[in-house]
Amino acid sequence: MKYNKNKKKKKKKTKISIDRDNGVYVAVILLVLIGLLLVFTSSSYYALYEQGDLYFFIKKQAMWAIIGLGFMSLFARVDYHFLRKFTWPLAGGTLGLLVLVLAIGKEINGAKRWIEVGGLSIQPSEIAKYAVVFILAHVIVKMGKEIKTIKNGIFLPLSIGAIFAVLVLAEKNLSITVVIAMVTYFMIMVAGANIRVLLGLIPVGFLGGLVLIIIEPYRLERLTTYLNPWADQSDSGYQLVHSLMAIGSGGVTGQGLGNSMQKALYMPEPHNDFIFAILAEEFGLLGCIFVIGLFVFLIISAIKVAMQAKDIYGRLLAVGITLVIAIQAIINISVVTGSIPVTGVPLPFISTGGTSLLINLVAMGVLLNIAKQGKKNRIDGEDNLRVIR
């Protein structure tokens, strides 16, 4: 037997890749950690001035982050099909909370959005945007091929979205109303509804939104302020002007951690909806690109989870959850940078707010379970996408 010295053993190439569930998990953990850092640095002056405690807001946010991550881990282990059994109790409970907040909710700046329970504030609209996702996924799967018909295809799912949107709008919360409307629209589109009918709804939605802005003086004022915030920079344009000042002063590399000037009682509640401006001021363009990149990575990973889900129900859930995060992130960053009129939408995982953080992390747990089951389904060789009714 001759031995060929020139014959070389083939080396196995190691393929390095990140599973979709790992991608989602890593992005979420990083965003939560960045959020905690930003909540602390942006709220320190305000917390000391208003509460007499430098750590007031970061302690609350850290507590909710720990609880939320615990629930994310729990829901990542719960079969998402099991959750489907609670669709209608979730619908009824959420509708009940939306009505309750209008009756006994805490009013802040003319809007009723919070219910005080044992010293904790619950914002039902944060639950509503995900409740709509679960309800629509269930209903659309039940409809089957009927979703494609012109007559009945979109009436039922649109009606469901409209009920929740109207109740949230009654709280004077146009921003979350828009989120619910857009999530409903795109979930119906992904489900395969007639595209011509859906395209015909765009001008209707645009006109409806315009009417809602015109009939409310404060919304109309926000629109005119958006067009020229410097015209009334001491009043209606104050928040946006100081946001733009923070972004401009941050430059490419930022002023450094803790060195924001706008958080020093110039910008009202900088740890809330305008926290991205403090990120820009302290960490500059590079910090903003990094955070936006994390959101893009999370959304791409989540889309791939949806594409590889084991059934239609899982796919629709993943699409809806992804839409909620993506739409909120886009609206928030657009508002802070002056790209669209000012409206109150928190930046997911980063803005302060216990209800928002907890609910978002629970949704990520469901998304991780969809990814886990989709991965197992591929390993088992069951590549067919099944409809579970």
Would you write up a description of this structure?
- The model is unreliable at 7-18 and 382-389 (pLDDT under 50).
- The longest helix is centred in the last third of the chain and has 33 residues, at 275-307.
- The protein contains 13 helices and 3 strands, in the order H-H-H-H-E-E-E-H-H-H-H-H-H-H-H-H.
- It is mainly alpha-helical.
- The chain has one domain.
- Helix 1 runs antiparallel to helix 11, helix 4 packs antiparallel against helix 5 (124-143) and helix 5 packs antiparallel against helix 12.
- Peptidoglycan polymerase that is essential for cell division.
- Its main location: membrane.
- It is a multi-pass membrane protein.
